[in-house]
Specification:
single chain; 576 residues; five-stranded antiparallel β-sheet
């Protein structure tokens, strides 16, 4: 939704307010039929109506100040918990005096009348809910989004600094009011119905909030001040992409946001990743750092932002266990623990697991037809064993022959013996070396793929790829009647630093049936951009993780590396 070029500055019409079409201004007698407020306030218009009550714009008779009057009809409350939340909101608002939160005037109850009501009176905010801007397809500048979030961060920082802290628990677009001023938007935080405050009995014991915006600890009934910042980061993602958070795929409690942020600088993606970290102890929760990062986004200073989000990033403690599937719990956690700073140092445990799998990588011997598969290590080791045995045997036989004929050649016995020994050996060894080199293309494959894999692990940028298709194929493992089942998994992704705007299509083969994958799923991915293929750029990628050793890890990009027989080095990598 962020757009720096074509940007509408029109604010939503008043009729865009939710429920406004069914809550038009009623005649004066009907609107003043709330006896408990009739002597203090004059109702001017109904701003919105829900199943339990209404919100009115009114005027305080004492000084003419405009107020917002929130009315709950107790008879309409289906769940008594709703009344408790309404009562809690009034008690908490009484203790809050924070810039950006509407001033609380009073709470009034009339429980004895024919229509029992509970009323909250606050300062009237002449603005529009952020959700209405979204519904009206308003396109915010990236700088406007950053400014809105800066103000909201300051409001939350003030609420959390209270003793005890006030946790809003329901940060979302409909609870953010914007006033359009000459200096930009002014932000107000409204609706404290879900607030948690230790002063209020059972203030944080109930699950309250909106699905998609709640942090994992809030979902578990243990909200923290950091939970509000998490919800703010979800809202920021919504504003930046237009993708509703409830539609996002989740793995290990982690929102998979990367595929939707490809048009933004990578440092912005990294900032949101850190703010949406499921583990609260590893999450970016320092409001000063968050505000500084947002100020850099507002100034479009992404170079400084990149340095900020990488500075003093805590190293995550992860158990690097072998993975058996791409959707296995812990897979995303391992991938996320890989440093975003390149070249990265791969944890020793992870490198040990990967090296064990490198020993069992298979290679295609027929790249065009994909028909014959041979196990690279076993095949090559067997060939070397054959050469060694044959050479030793030939050397021993010829040396013995040389020694036997030595008495007949007294003058040049040593030279003759060497000739009889070395020349036949050369005739045997050289053709065999050539045969191995020409007949086993896995030699160049192993070298190039090894170097490519290590470079991707060290320099690869992290993103998510989308599974496009999964196809079943047969391939001959050896020239015999044995057949090996293969699944070809095709995936797409769009690197933010690639020169092309189109999605890139890549694939890999696996012997393990990918039961946990289906088209549309997201899988972690590492990629690098090289400048070595015909003097152009090419993006090499691998999905993460490299699975257990009985899996055939055949990446199409590794086959391409073998085709060009290029031994990759760090200088081939395009960075930034």
């Amino acid at each position: 939704m962020a757009n720096e070029i074509e940007c509408s500055h029109e604010t939503p019409a008043k009729t865009a307010y939710r429920g406004y079409d069914t809550a038009q201004t009623r005649d004066h007698e009907e609107m003043t039929s709330i006896p408990c407020i009739a002597k203090k306030y004059e109702i001017l218009e109904c701003l919105g109506r829900g199943s339990q009550g209404e919100v009115y714009r009114g005027k305080r008779l004492g000084d003419g100040s405009e107020v917002a009057i929130k009315v709950m009809h107790i008879k309409s409350v289906k769940n008594w918990k709703m009344y408790e939340l309404f009562d809690r909101e009034a008690k908490v608002l009484l203790t809050i005096h924070v810039d950006g939160v509407a001033k609380f005037y009073e709470a009034i109850e009339d429980l004895n009348g024919p229509d029992p009501v509970s009323v909250i009176v606050q300062q009237y905010i002449d603005g529009h809910a952020l959700s209405e801007f979204i519904k009206a397809h308003h396109r915010f500048l990236l700088s406007d989004i950053a400014d809105i979030l800066i103000q909201l961060t300051t409001i939350l920082e003030s609420l959390h600094a209270l003793n005890p802290p006030v946790i809003h628990r329901d940060i979302k677009p409909s609870n953010i009011m914007l006033q359009d001023t000459a200096h930009g938007y002014r932000v107000w935080l409204i609706d404290f119905g879900a607030v948690a405050n230790p002063v209020i009995k059972d203030g944080g014991s109930t699950l309250a909030g909106t699905y998609g915006y709640m942090a994992p600890e809030q979902l578990m009934g243990q909200p923290k001040p950091a939970s509000d910042l998490y919800s703010m980061a979800v809202m920021a993602f919504y504003l930046l992409t237009g993708v509703a958070p409830e539609s996002l795929e989740i793995a290990d409690f982690r929102l998979l946001i990367d595929p939707h942020l490809q048009n933004l600088p990578f440092s912005v993606t990294l900032l949101l990743r850190q703010m949406l970290e499921p583990h609260i102890d590893q999450r970016l929760t320092d409001t000063k750092t968050i505000r500084r990062a947002l100020e850099l986004i507002k100034k479009s200073d992404f170079k400084s932002l990149d340095a900020l989000v990488h500075h003093d990033k805590a190293e995550k403690i992860v158990t690097w266990t072998p993975m058996k599937s791409y959707k296995q719990p812990g897979c995303i956690e391992q991938w996320d623990a890989l440093s975003d700073v390149v070249p990265r140092k791969i944890p020793r445990e992870a490198m040990n697991n990967i090296e064990n799998r490198l020993k069992n990588i298979y290679a295609l011997t027929d790249m065009e037809q994909f028909s014959v598969f041979k196990r690279a290590k076993c095949y090559y080791s067997f060939r070397k064993f054959q050469i060694l045995i044959f050479s030793i045997t030939a050397m021993m036989v010829l040396s013995l022959v040389g020694l036997l004929i030595q008495p007949f050649f007294y003058n040049n016995s040593i030279l003759v013996a060497c000739c009889y020994t070395l020349i036949p050996i050369a005739f045997i060894i050289l053709p065999l070396i050539g045969a191995v080199k020409d007949g086993n293309p896995n030699t160049s494959y192993c070298k190039s793929s090894n170097s490519l894999l290590r470079l991707i692990l060290s320099y690869g940028r992290k993103t998510f790829a989308t599974v496009k298709s999964i196809e079943f194929e047969f391939a001959v493992d050896r020239p015999s009647s044995e057949y090996c089942p293969l699944w070809k998994v095709t995936y797409t992704f769009n690197p933010v630093d690639d020169s092309s705007d189109d999605d890139l299509v890549r694939y890999f083969y696996t012997r393990r049936r990918p039961d946990d994958l289906k088209p549309g799923d997201l899988i972690p991915c590492l990629y690098i951009i090289t400048c070595t293929v015909m003097d152009g750029e090419y993006v090499y990628s691998i999905p993460w993780p490299i699975l257990e050793q009985d899996d055939v890890y055949l990446s199409g990009d590794f086959l391409k590396a073998r085709k060009y027989e290029h031994l990759f080095v760090a200088s081939d990598i395009k960075v930034g």
